[in-house]
From TrEMBL, chains A, B:
Signal peptide: none annotated. Tetramer of two alpha and two beta chains. Keywords: Amino-acid biosynthesis, Aromatic amino acid biosynthesis, Lyase, Pyridoxal phosphate, Tryptophan biosynthesis. Pathway: Amino-acid biosynthesis; L-tryptophan biosynthesis; L-tryptophan from chorismate: step 5/5. Belongs to the TrpB family. It comes from Candidatus Clostridium helianthi. This is tryptophan synthase. Its cofactor is pyridoxal 5'-phosphate. Its EC number is 4.2.1.20. Residues 81-417 form the Tryptophan synthase beta chain-like PALP domain. Pfam families: PALP.
């Protein structure tokens, strides 16, 4: 038998020309977003003040199975795609596992992650609509970098609200976003009402994705020609990110493989939703039955310890209500080092699939995550992002189970990005000062107690 | 005609299985290295106290045209190679040039540069010889990172002397080298005689590659089972780096292209020597006649303003003497931001080829380099390393000449690495505080006055 190459690249022609919309194959759809004023399902025109028109349509499109990737975007994708599917020969050997481990590596572009897949799509639609600026939030800074790259490409001014603890942990993220002409503000800030009211309660707030979202949305709705874009959670983002899974599946078909287990890290769900899309399709249509595992930080365990409830997507409570696994929009996670996973909720699509038991979830502590990250780096020569390393931890643990049982399972995981801007976190792991934070039940109850009351629903 | 893809990847089977030794085709060889004690040509056994046996042999092998890449190394190469050859469609469009611009991108591995090509080879030979530790120097930190990765893979303890000004500009380089278990010391340091004597003269010395080399060599020769390895300048390094050019040439053949101009940045010459190898072969054997251009920093202009003379490879004057373009081993370049190019000399092979007019050289100021870097980043979505950006500057200038003349020349340049650890430098460019440093003739005379006197030779 011919040995499978270390790195499998599609040709440019094989890059998917359509995104896949998972909702079209779900037996039961996610519950609709609700307007927070009247608790009625959101109509597409309700979204226009905040979102680009085309993206608002994608957000509510539950039925179109495949959506064409505009040709101009296909061209842009070719600048950094296809991303490689990599066989982790050395990791397998170091673990002594009979499992076959593959990872889809999305970190080989300057944003350092998969975020560019959706950033460039959102900037494209904004430009096409004639918008004159955009706002967004960023946690770890990867989304902010990706969107700055995309906006610079389309000459669209951009304001980025960056979660303050990440802003401080990663001073160089500011410079890279500035290199691409992005204006970056640590959040909570005094530039918005939402930020000011959070700072009034806690002047030392380290911020959260939910809080940064409030600020960015407020800035968008109060600025002419400006809309808000978001790097995760939303249906439209999962749609764009489906290219990860679609490419992975084609690459695996080329080597006659199919995963028994698909593993991704989960914050808002953008990478996980994209990676698993075609495999979940097989599951929903009963063509195959892979296990699908979300790995989240123990410090922000929305799937494993959250409630499946309607909640705001932001801390300032100005977004529509989405039914999702949530820790409550007022929950501020401790300052763990995977800034990209510090979100109180989870993609409504993934929440529904998890609720309906199409996927599993586990939570892991950050010292265990960094242990996996360093082990992986030494054997696979790639320095992973802390977020991505949650998936590595999950994959290593499954591979070690295979070692015990002797099963040669095929494991696919998503390596979403690189850790070059996370050396402060690596340093704290290496010098032994990194701590694990696990919220107590009381901490969680506090978050749940702020969930919105909705007449007749919750 | 079929459109040329944005990214051209070889298949794994197409990755070269032999390195190419440029010396075998040179009409006149570089002058031999001299033993500094007796000024006699160095014999291979003279090198054994400092270098691994196999690498010492490669250093002096002027005749074997192709040298097999050991199978184990071929396997390692597959973890991060082939690197893509990229057609810069967007850069061409932004410049409005009829030129066709290609770049070989070596930055998609955790070392962030081409340095891993030689680092893993050197660690492999060291391990095979049963050595128990290695030492090296690093300027920008890319070589140090690459060697730390390689040594971690082979479980070889490593001490890295890092040029002090780079160490201070790039705090996170320390952490990434530590992640791969490397021990890192800012140079000049008080851990060696060479370091102490430099600090005695100038306690505030910002260091230089030449000085860090002295420290690393001293540490190697005074430690049992330890040898010294170097990331540039040497013939063996150019040999390993030939894989860059060999891959580039195969990829260009696949799309029926051949470069009219080949451009690389030049510090010690590792990337330039590797990139141009097969094209220089064509030139030496009169099969083709591409222009070959070295781009060096105006602050450290060894080719454009140096002397072609025998000199020490290090500041402490403990290495053999090599005939090369040099600014004098006592020349300490100003603290410009391309740490990887702050070397007083130039590869003897490249020096000879330049002396014999097989290649051209230009020098550029760093603000012009960063202007090119930011322009490139915005259009090609890759944040380049400052070193690599010298080649970008050269390529942009040649493409703009084509715009004037209307010629559709084919330009190939080497994009050696990424700038994620260079954000301090980018920040200084963005905020306008970056300054250009050009040594005066008097500065250079001072360096030349320290060139060694060799009876009957110079």
């Amino acid at each position: 038998m011919k040995k499978i190459p270390h790195r499998i690249y599609l040709t440019e022609d094989q890059i998917p020309k359509q995104w896949y919309n998972l909702r079209a194959d779900m037996k039961e759809l996610p519950d609709p977003m609700l307007n927070p004023q009247n608790f009625q399902p959101v109509k597409v025109e309700d979204l226009y003040p905040v979102f680009c028109t085309e993206l608002a349509k994608q957000e509510l499109d539950n039925s179109t199975r495949y959506i064409d990737i505009p040709e101009e975007l296909q061209e842009f994708y070719k600048m950094f795609r296809p991303s490689p599917l990599i066989r982790a020969y050395n990791l397998e050997k170091a673990l002594g596992t009979p499992a076959k481990i593959y990872y889809k590596f999305e970190g080989n572009n300057t944003s350092g992650s998969h975020k560019l897949n959706s950033a460039i799509a959102q900037a494209y639609y904004a430009k096409k609509q004639g918008l004159t600026s955009l706002t967004t939030e960023t946690g770890a800074g990867q989304w902010g970098t990706a969107l700055a790259e995309a906006c610079s490409y389309y000459n669209l001014p951009l304001t980025v609200y960056m979660v303050k603890c990440s802003y401080e942990q990663k001073p160089f993220r500011k410079s890279i976003i500035r290199t691409f002409d992005g204006n970056i503000i640590p959040s909570p800030s005094n530039t918005t009402n939402a930020g000011r009211s959070i700072l009034e309660i806690d002047p030392n707030s380290t911020g959260s994705l939910g809080c940064a979202i409030s600020e960015a949305v407020e800035k968008a709705v109060t600025t002419d020609g400006c809309k808000y874009v978001l790097g995760s959670v939303l249906n439209q983002v999962l749609l764009h990110q489906s290219i990860i899974g679609l490419e992975s599946k084609i690459a695996m078909e080329m080597i006659d493989e199919y995963p028994d287990i698909v593993i991704g890290c989960a914050g808002g769900g953008s990478n996980l939703g994209g990676l698993i899309a075609p495999f979940m399709q097989d599951k929903l249509t009963e063509k195959a039955n892979p296990r699908i595992i979300a790995v989240e930080p123990a410090s922000c365990p929305s799937l494993t310890r959250g409630r499946y409830a309607y909640d705001f997507c932001d801390t300032g409570k100005i977004t529509p209500l989405a039914r999702m696994y949530t820790l409550g929009s007022s929950f501020i996670p401790s300052a763990n080092h995977a800034g990209g996973l510090r979100y109180h909720g989870m993609s409504p699509i993934l929440s529904k699939l998890y609720h309906d038991e199409y996927m599993e979830a586990i939570s892991v502590e950050q010292t265990k995550v960094f242990e996996a990250a360093v082990f992986f780096a030494k054997h696979e020569t790639i320095l992973p992002a802390p977020e991505s390393s949650h998936a590595i931890r999950g994959a290593i643990d499954e591979a070690l189970k295979c070692k015990e049982t002797g099963e040669a399972k095929t494991i696919l995981f998503g390596l979403t990005g690189t850790g070059y801007f996370d050396m402060t976190a690596y340093e704290s792991y290496l010098n032994g000062s990194m701590q694990d934070y696990i919220p107590t039940d009381k901490d969680l109850e506090k978050g749940f107690s702020c969930l919105p009351k909705i007449p007749g629903i919750q």
